[in-house]
Fold this sequence. Notes:
Blueprint: E1 7-12, E2 23-33, E3 39-42, E4 49-53, E5 56-61, E6 71-76
Antiparallel strand pairs: 1-2, 1-6, 2-3, 3-4, 4-5, 5-6
Amino acid sequence: MENPSRRYAVTLPGPVCGHGxxxxxxxxxxxxxxxxxxxxxxxxxxxxxxxITGEVATVLAAPAGAPQHPCLHAVPLP
Length: 78
């Protein structure tokens, strides 16, 4: 089942024990399926890739130094 949204905002929490704000990365559909059989979404530079189910983004690839959270919050964008 294809998701009607073509873009999502994925929120990465701020640093652990830090006071920095969370980061938001916009991802778009790639047309590929991930290991979970769901569509793969990626950032413009391709360095951040996720599978999205409902409002949960499962991280497939993240840039070096990015927070290592396996599941993140995803919100569809208009």
